[in-house]
Amino acid sequence: MSLAGLRVVVSAGPTYEDLDPVRFIGNRSSGKMGFAVAAAAARRGARTVLIAGPVHLPTPDGVERIDVRSAAQMHDAVLRALPADVYVGAAAVADFTPENIASSKIKKTAGQDALVLRLVRTPDILADVARDARRPRCVVGFAAETDDVAHYARGKLEKKNIDMIAANRVGVAGSGFESDDNALNVYWRENNDAVGERALGPAPKTTLADALMDLIEERLHA
After folding, report:
1. Of the residues 27, 185, 191, 192, which is catalytic?
2. Residue 182: left (phi > 0), alpha (psi -120 to 50), or beta?
3. Best exposed site among 29, 128, 146, 183 by fewest CB in 10 Å?
4. 110-150 pLDDT, tens per residue?
C-alpha cells in the first residue's frame, strides 16, 4: 500500500473527434497501457481516477472511471479531477479536431474528387495540468513516436514543464498500439536539473505499469 492516501489521476485510450454523426478522426490506441497504470496505482492503495477515451476494456478493481469521447471532454474531465498527487497522461489525445462538426452526414456529390477539412488545435492537457494552480506533485506524460523517440520525448519533457515522460516507439509489430506488450524509455527531471533515464521492457504492459509506478514513487520521495 505504498501510495495509500494519495490521489492519482490517469488518462487512457484514444480520443474521437467527430466530423459528422457518422464519421470521426481517431487513432489506434487500445487504452491498455493507461488502464494497466491505473490498476497498478489502485493496487498500491491510491485513490485512483481513470479518465478513459472510447475503449472496450473493463474498469480495474478499485478505480473510479470517467468515460469521455473527445479531446475537449478529456481536457475538462482531467482538470475537474484535480487536485491530485500524481497525474499520468497515458492517453493518445488528438492534436487536431474539426473546426466545425456537420449536423448531418457529409455526402459526396457528383464529380467530387476531394474533400477539404479544416482542423484546429485541441487543448494541451499535459501543459495545462503542469501550469495549473492545483498542479500534482508528479506530472507524467507519454510520447508515442515513430522516429527520433528520445529527441522528441526529452523536448516534450522540457517544453511542457512536466516531471517525467515515458516514450515508446509505435508502428512496430508486437509493441505499442493495439498490443499487450510495450517498451518504454523513461526520462525525468533530477533535482539538479539533469535528466535521468531508464529503459523498461520489452514486457507486458501490466509489468511495465508496475515498473513505471516504482519510478513515480522514487520521484515522489526524491
Report:
1. 27
2. beta
3. 146
4. 888 898 999 999 999 999 999 999 999 999 999 887 777 88
| pLDDT over threshold 80, residue 77 | yes
Return d(Cα 12, Cα 15) in angstroms, integer. Answer: 9
The counts of H helices and E strands in the chain are 5, 12
pLDDT band at 42 (very low <50, low <70, confident <90, very high): very high
Number of domains in the chain: 1
* 192, part of any domain: yes
β partners of residue 96: 121
Q: Model-level pTM?
A: 0.93
Query: What domain range is 185 assigned to?
Result: 7-99+116-221
What are the phi and psi torsion angles at 83 (to 5°)? -80, 155
Query: Residue 1: inside a domain, yes or no?
Result: no
Domain-located, residue 152: yes
Residue 130 sits in a domain whose CATH number is 3.40.50.10300
- Placement of cell 516504482 in the chain: 214
Does 27 qualify as catalytic in the annotation?
Answer: yes
